[in-house]
User: Fold this.
Amino acid sequence: MRSVIDILDLDVHELDALTDTALDIIAHPDDYADACRRKKLATLFFEPSTRTRLSFEAAMYELGGNVLSMASAAASSAAKGESVADTVKTVSCYADIIAMRHPKEGAALVAANSATVPVINAGDGGHCHPTQTLADLLTVRREKGRFGDLTVGFCGDLKFGRTVHSFISALSRYPGVRFVLISPEELKLPSYIKKDVLQKKEIPYVQTEDLEDALPGLDILYMTRVQRERFFNEEDYLRLKDSYILTPDKLKNAGPDLSVMHPLPRVNEISVAIDNDPRACYFKQVSNGKYMRMALILKLLKEAGTL
Amino acid sequence: MTVDSILNGVVIDHITAGSGMRLFELLKLDRMDVTVALMKNVTSRKMGRKDIIKIDADIPIDLDVIGFVDPGATVNIIKNGELAEKKSIRLPDTLKGVLRCKNPRCIVTTEQELPQIFRLTDPAERVYRCVYCETKAQ
Assistant:
């Protein structure tokens, strides 16, 4: 049974095909309005989420399907101590496909190994969040018209930011990509990603702590939130949370074609005064995420023989 | 110091000096009710110093554990006092039930009945990572 746990579960041809499908859905939504009629998506969210859960649910409804979900992790059998494996085996009896978010890293793999229907990882702790990366990729394709030959800056929490790790892994498979990694010392990109992904593929990158200095050379700036839930120590979080704040003043240093992205939710790292700037793309990312989730649900249900 | 030859059993030889104790523990030899000799810092013409483990019993040995600790080690199966078989040792692609993931955020910390599985991700550096959370084995 094909599941998607990591963005690397999808090769570049599949990513291209998924973005093709998403663009076709955007152009011809009526053609897909009944594509998943009488099919059910179960959304198992063991960790708080607004946009990802609603995005999956909206995606399934727009495909003409139905959604099963639980009110919260506290209301699920997990609160009684049920294992992830038992939960997804049970839910597989009710649903045709599962989207799962869980606070523990690797929970999605455990689910995929036990479920009898496809599982989509909607985030497993700080590990992977492949559908956010799909949203990011469609945004790049729509804003830039290409995946390669881009200088992409990542700013903020590059250590715990799973969306950063996945997006870097995905973009690394395209030619001509360069990275500028902007973070405080404590939140630098983990060395294993630099070694296993960037250095192994000889992808050029620079590390800096200076956002304003890096801005002029960027095609894309991917801002991130310093996530309180990833810290064991509140003092460290408070010390680092305001490291980078993008303001209209700082954005004056950037080129006119820059695309500012953010996986959201933001706290204060992008000033609301930037929201109406034509370079701001983060709410477009939200919309693109729904279309890519539609494309992925369709693909996995077709591969499972359900459609 | 001399250790008697064994009649039926296993000799793990050419272990890098200093690795014998770790191998002894990972093979769980301390929990087996068999005669075992662990020799440390034995003089070796080829290696200078080496460790040797002799097990005086015909028991199954997890070659993946030996490959993980020391892919240069050799394993000889002894039957009736004679060399019956030389086992080839290589770095295993996967390790099951040998190491424990130390990442407190990993699913195996809360669901402890899950098998502990590590996969070889960098053969040159002998790096193994947890299949669930990708944390590097220590």
